[in-house]
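Exercise 7. Given the encoded structure of a 114-residue chain, write a plausible sequence.
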């Protein structure tokens, strides 16, 4: 629950940084499972809007991290990070399943799209 909520929160947080909006969620805020689909949908909708309206993926985004430090990264690097970050944590979730005697569900992108 904690890791999947974190994946959703981080995606939301990065979208908010790109759009220069305040984040509605804390990095490690936990959500009820019943809310996951709505949060995921809004994250995807927001990312689609960002990509559809982007005229320059090399555009630099200035943002403040959760500790208040200022950084700058390109839009393309942030978008790649959103994907890579969730991949890392989905792997951790799969390991947790196996360590607890359960078979993890497929989490590859192509599997999801099927």
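Solution.
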């Amino acid at each position: 629950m904690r890791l999947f909520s974190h994946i959703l929160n981080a995606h939301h947080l990065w979208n908010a940084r790109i759009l220069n909006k305040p984040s509605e969620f804390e990095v490690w805020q936990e959500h009820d499972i019943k809310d996951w689909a709505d949060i995921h949908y809004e994250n995807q909708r927001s990312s689609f809007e960002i990509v559809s309206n982007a005229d320059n993926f090399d555009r630099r985004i200035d943002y403040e991290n959760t500790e208040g430090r200022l950084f700058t990264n390109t839009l393309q690097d942030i978008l790649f990070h959103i994907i890579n970050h969730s991949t890392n944590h989905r792997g951790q979730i799969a390991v947790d399943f196996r360590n607890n005697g359960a078979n993890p569900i497929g989490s590859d992108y192509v599997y999801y799209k099927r």
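Remark. The radius of gyration is 15 Å. Students should compare their own answers with the one above.
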